[in-house]
Design a protein that fits this description.
Shape: elongated
Strand order of the largest sheet: 8-5-7-6-10-9
Structural class: alpha+beta
Distance between the termini: 25 Å
Helix content: 10-25%
Radius of gyration: 30 Å
């Protein structure tokens, strides 16, 4: 899949749209940050030498607010009132914080302490200097990165663009909304979960709707998807025993591979290209569809968007429940609740029913315990665990697995 889902070339992206994207080139500072020496505190800009033998009384020249330039040079025995972020006036080489001063009158201040040269002064270029590599190609742009770019006046960056991913559900049995169900009908959940999972992976998503079981409708939905999206996700119709038009149509219009993977859930899976656009066929059972996306779809989509860390993080966790299973030649992915324990380790308990149709347990899970082929893991044993989200601490506060 990674070979057939090529990494998209970087393109210019406005900084305001770049959160979560992978940077395509180094960003080099073209100016200093801050661009001038300024104060880190509210207080008085002074000559450090004038504070020797404090307390001392100094003449107040002016008040300098952030965003305003000083108008007077600080000479011997003088000071300027200054607010955080304001430029250091000529002649001054230190700042005394306001808490260590006392106004004598409108034109004089008593400085209570001696201060060294540079006290509470942020030099020009203290954060970033001209020529410094501030961000490197391959970094995933965070909120702080965007702040750095804005501090340098950068309006756009070269980054790997987001994929536009379309999701379609097929089947006469599927309905949506709150209307009463007719015999044999079920409400479509897979489409909404796949849209959310793709968005969570950093993609832009397009809802291609539900296509009824007619060749014309399914063909039109897939054609619409591959003509407007960078990838298309479908659910259902990929099992060996399925009698489904999806298989017939995809085999006719695309280059598809229909697979049985030695995992549980999510054994059936399909992947291929239609008009050069990747199409992922996930199982129809809700839990299988979600697990299949996490293990197979998400890494491929992230690869196309320039990411190098493709898989969810894995930790070695302590099993606080027994995870029994029978040998069947497959790796099982049990839905579990992971939590940081008092011993500094991650502990996992079952999230509930492990059937591939039991979406409630999947909703309760924040991780997947990886059970190799065999008899399972005994209570107190260790198990590799894929973290799907933040792991709560003992206090209940989430800790980001990354």
């Amino acid at each position: 899949m990674l070979d057939r889902v090529p990494r998209r070339a970087p393109v210019p992206v406005p900084v305001g749209d770049a959160l979560g994207l992978v940077l395509g080139e180094d960003v080099v500072a073209s100016e200093q940050v801050p661009p001038f020496a300024n104060t880190a505190m509210d207080g008085f800009a002074v000559r450090a030498a004038d504070t020797a033998g404090a307390p001392v009384e100094l003449e107040i020249l002016e008040t300098i607010a952030a965003g305003h330039a000083p108008t007077a040079e600080v000479g011997p025995g003088q000071a300027s009132r200054i607010f955080t972020g304001a430029p250091i006036p000529p002649g001054a080489d230190a700042v005394v914080m306001v808490e260590r001063t006392e106004l004598v009158d409108e034109h004089h201040v008593r400085v209570e302490i001696e201060v060294p040269v540079g006290n509470h002064v942020r030099p020009a270029g203290d954060d970033l200097d001209v020529g410094a590599v501030v961000l490197s190609a391959g970094e995933v742009l965070s909120a702080a990165h965007l702040g750095v770019l804005c501090s340098l006046g950068v309006e756009s960056v070269l980054a790997h663009p987001r994929l536009t991913v379309g999701v379609v559900s097929t089947g006469d049995e599927l309905v949506e909304g709150a209307q009463p169900l007719a015999p044999g009908q079920i409400r479509d959940s897979n489409r909404r979960t796949l849209l959310a999972l793709a968005a969570g992976a950093g993609c832009d998503v397009v809802d291609l709707g539900i296509a009824p079981d007619t060749e014309e409708a399914i063909t039109a939905a897939i054609r619409r998807g591959v003509s407007t999206c960078d990838a298309v996700l479908t659910s259902g119709g990929v099992s060996m025993g399925d009698i489904d038009l999806v298989k017939v149509i995809l085999d006719r219009i695309g280059d598809m591979r229909w697979m049985q993977i030695a995992i549980k859930p999510a054994k059936p899976f399909a992947f291929g290209l239609v008009d050069g656009v990747p199409v992922f066929g996930f199982p129809g059972n809700p839990v299988s569809s979600m697990v299949s996306f996490e293990l197979l779809g998400r890494p491929a989509l992230r690869h196309a968007m320039g990411h190098t860390e493709l898989d969810r993080p894995v930790v070695r966790a302590v099993a606080d429940d027994a995870f029994d299973r029978r040998p069947d030649g497959k790796t099982h992915f049990a839905r579990v609740v992971a939590r940081h324990g008092g011993d500094g380790r991650v502990h996992v308990t079952t999230a509930g029913g492990q059937g591939s149709h039991q979406l409630g347990a999947m909703a309760a899970a924040n991780a997947l315990a990886v059970l190799p082929d065999g008899d399972g893991v005994a209570m107190g044993g260790e198990v590799d665990t894929l973290l799907l989200g933040g792991v709560p601490s003992e206090s209940g506060l989430p800790i980001d697995p990354a």
